[in-house]
Amino acid sequence: MGHAGHAPQNASFLGPVDLTDLDGLFSDREKTTAMRVRGFVDEVIRPNIADWYDRAVFPAEIIPELGRLGVLGMHLEGHGCPGRSAVEYGLAAQELEAGDSGLRTFVSVQGSLAMTAIHRHGSEAQKREWLPRMATGEAVGCFGLTEPTAGSDPASMRTRARQEPGGDWVLTGSKRWIGLANLADVAIIWAQTGEHGDGRGIRGFVVPTDTPGFRAEVIDQKLSMRASVQCEIQLDQVRLPAEAVLPADSAIGLKGPFTCLNEARYGIIWGVMGAARDSFEAVLDYAATRTQFGTPLAGYQLTQAKLADMAVAINRGYLLAHQIGRVKDREPRALTPAMISTGKLDNCRVAIGIARDAREMLGGNGITLDHSPLRHANNLESVRTYEGTDEVHQLTIGRHLTGLGAFTAG
Fold first, then answer.
1. Residue-range definition of the domain harbouring residue 147
2. What is the CATH classification number for the domain harbouring 195?
3. Do residues 228 and 263 share a domain?
4. Which of 44, 135, 192, 193 has its CA 20 to 30 A from that of 365?
5. Last residue of a domain, one of 251, 270, 289
6. Last residue of one domain, picked from the residues 191, 225, 251
7. Could you give the CA distance from residue 304 to residue 130 in angstroms, rounded to a whole number?
8. Of 273, 261, 405, 277, which is closest to residue 346 (Cα–Cα)?
9. Contact 106/58 with Cβ under 8 angstroms?
């Protein structure tokens, strides 16, 4: 998307929205990574996304291309993974989400959830079997935590894993809103192994999706994330060998899936800024060429005020993402849940507000797929909900501030 009429020749790689020299925060290597992903988005995603969204099609044919692009498990090292920095991954995520949230979500589910679970908590054999193929896109993974009756409260999950005398595990239950499950070769399934359902007995299992009793059904008739795929999984006496469990102590209890969720939330902090930036650029171009009452929309004070507020908010969001990314690269253990929640909460709020405002500024034309903001706004309704609702993140921050947990009604 060109902006020659808006920005000087040596403009920031982030385009005309960059009011605060964001460009200067990033190294040449980081900017090269972003521009490489942007080139892929411009060539492959932008020409097709309106059609994919309209027909509710996830373009599975681009999965190997994403592997060659180096964005699958981008932040992981070893076993064929790219091993890039957190900031590079963040920049890649925002470029992908500038194309569409659903396609960034694929990268997040594959890398931040399924691959991270195996990389952080898996055995050496599990890593060797799955990670190299997942990094190239040859194998697809999904992450089964959420259930029809357990979203924000995963400790109440009803999926059960029973170990039999011979060592085999048998899984029974269901999962809902599981991205990629119908395409996946392997599913990371979290199940309760304890008696009391308090979360302490939750374990993760590496489940090949061709295992008898595993079934994934696509959730249709969505108003959001239409170029993505989410499923309900049914687990009917799924029998697994003893070595299917994720063996690391770090995978015992809810800390196992939460480690992966925090990786996904980190990517969202950056990703939604791509959707916001794309919405801003769409309406900036439109305002320059759309004439009303003999004057381009860009020449009206109300338009300029709205554009100014959008740009300031986007700059703030990038600065927040950058700070969190640098902390993650410098000392991952310093990255607190409150920090992740701050970024996910505020950047999602900012992005969805900008997408909605941009749609409004496009007038009636804004409800068509000729323009991206309403598509972004619809997608962001999902992004704002998954990996923790606003309320979950508010309570995470509140617990950090007060030392008191307030997640239950009592």
1. 141-251
2. 2.40.110.10
3. no
4. 44
5. 251
6. 251
7. 51
8. 273
9. yes
Q: Which of 217, 360, 387, 391 is the catalytic position?
A: 387
Taking 50 as the threshold, does the pLDDT of residue 5 lie above it? no
pLDDT, one tens digit per residue, over 124-159 is: 999 999 999 999 999 999 999 999 998 888 888 999
Are 92 and 196 found together in one domain?
Answer: no
Q: Is 336 exposed, middle or buried (0-12, 13-18, 19+ CB in 10 A)?
A: middle
Q: Within a domain: residue 308?
A: yes
Known active-site residue 65: no
335 and 214 in a common domain = no
Cα 188 from Cα 113, distance rounded (Å): 9
pLDDT > 50? residue 351:
yes
User: Are 269 and 244 within one domain?
Assistant: no
Domain count, the chain: 3
List, for residues 223-275, the tens digit of each pLDDT value: 999 999 999 999 999 999 999 999 999 999 999 999 999 999 999 999 999 99
User: In terms of pTM, does the model score above 0.90?
Assistant: yes
d(CA 243, CA 123): 8
Instruction: With beta carbons less than 8 A apart as the criterion, state whether 227 and 57 touch.
Output: yes
* Token couple for 246: 């994720």
Is residue 107 in a domain? yes
Euclidean distance between CA atoms 242 and 175, whole angstroms: 22
Query: Contact, 167 vs 240, CB < 8 A?
Result: no
User: Do residues 172 and 224 both lie within one domain?
Assistant: yes
